[in-house]
Design a protein that fits this description.
348 residues, alpha+beta, D-amino Acid Aminotransferase, Chain A, domain 1, D-amino Acid Aminotransferase, Chain A, domain 2, 2 domains, 8 helices, 18 strands
Length: 348
């Protein structure tokens, strides 16, 4: 591994990297074939357009060690490929040739398969990225790009190591508005969220809980994850998530959770969720959780707002959250049947 963490600290998230990287270039209107290279420092011109105008997109997916066979399972790579191309189009960047994204991911995981961790809660996080690297200060889309795929053995996404997270809902910033880039995975979305993330951490919270841009009333998503709530309990429990409408990233873990919930016979609705209703301890909302590739399913313990309102949701994961989290682990580790196109298998 390229960077080592101190003994006993665990893997963390994104602190160390495997031995190889995939790279390809887009020049003169065409992509080169990708190549597998040693992980090493890159050299860019100081005038590389990504550093001036921010043309950068990325994806995130994971490879897991199967618990039932000597295999590594790459989860939902084809879905990531489709979203990567959609992000590229929105950011005036060239989509990849058909099949290139998935082939590149498969090649990198195959080369570094021995570095896929096996401890419970760990995985190999895979980060495909495209950046504008043409040396120019002209205010226009770049005409040259680099495509890279790197990988990082990880465990907990949250630096706090908490098994449940606290979320901070504040109205002074917004993540995305209609017509913007909220439904694509561009680097600028994350750069613009850093101040709000720091504000959340200053209030001893793990994540931002974004509200809608117009009324600051409805839940949209967490800082790097989609949002679910559970209404009622027992046989009357319903799973609700904010609807996709151009401001929310269509997460693949979100889509997986919806499918797994329906397998369990749960009613799933994509409806607006009001913050005030979530904060009402006497209301029908009984569970809240975040979900995303990096974090998996993260139950929410507490929600705090910028006006001092607070609700402790629960001190332990609710039954629906716990069941869906177990289902997610099972399907990503080969213990239950995936849907078609979810899994790419690599011999370990």
């Amino acid at each position: 591994m390229t960077e080592q963490t101190p003994a006993g600290t665990g893997l963390g998230f994104g602190a160390l990297f495997t031995k190889h990287v995939i790279s390809a270039r887009y020049v003169a209107g065409a992509w080169s074939a990708f190549e597998l290279r040693d992980f090493e420092e890159l050299r860019f011109s100081p005038a590389a357009m990504v550093m001036h105008y921010g043309q950068a997109i990325f994806e995130g997916l994971k490879a897991f060690r199967s618990t039932v066979a000597d295999e590594v399972l790459i989860f939902r790579a084809a879905d990531c490929a489709r979203r990567f191309d959609r992000s590229a189009t929105r950011m005036a960047m060239p989509p990849l040739p058909a099949g290139m994204f998935v082939d590149a991911v498969r090649t990198l995981v195959g080369a570094d398969v021995s570095e896929v961790p096996s401890a419970p809660g760990s995985a190999l996080y895979i980060r495909p990225v495209m950046v504008a690297d043409e040396p120019s200060l002209a205010v226009r889309p770049s005409m040259e790009f680099s495509f890279l795929v790197l990988a990082s053995p990880v465990d907990s996404f949250f630096a706090s190591g908490r098994s449940m997270i606290d979320a901070y809902a504040q109205r002074s910033h917004i993540r995305a508005a209609l017509g913007g880039t909220g439904d694509v995975k561009c680097a600028g979305n994350y750069a613009g969220a850093m101040a709000a993330k720091a504000d959340a951490q200053a209030h001893d919270c793990d994540e931002v809980l974004w509200l809608d841009a117009r009324e600051h009333r409805y839940l949209e998503e967490f800082g790097a994850m989609n949002c679910f709530v559970v209404r009622s309990s027992g046989g009357h429990a319903e799973l609700i998530t904010p609807p996709l409408g151009g401001t929310i990233l269509p997460g693949h873990t979100r889509a997986t959770v919806i499918d797994l919930a329906r397998r369990r016979g749960l009613t799933v609705r994509e409806d607006p969720v009001e913050l005030d209703r979530v904060l009402d301890a006497d209301g029908p909302i009984t569970e809240v959780f975040a979900c995303g590739t990096a974090a998996g399913l993260a139950p929410v313990r507490r929600i705090l707002t910028d006006t001092g309102e607070q609700r402790i949701i629960a001190d332990r994961p609710g039954p629906v959250t716990a069941a869906l989290a177990a289902d997610y682990v099972a399907v990503t580790h080969g213990e239950s049947e995936p849907e078609a196109d979810w899994i790419i298998t690599i011999a370990a």
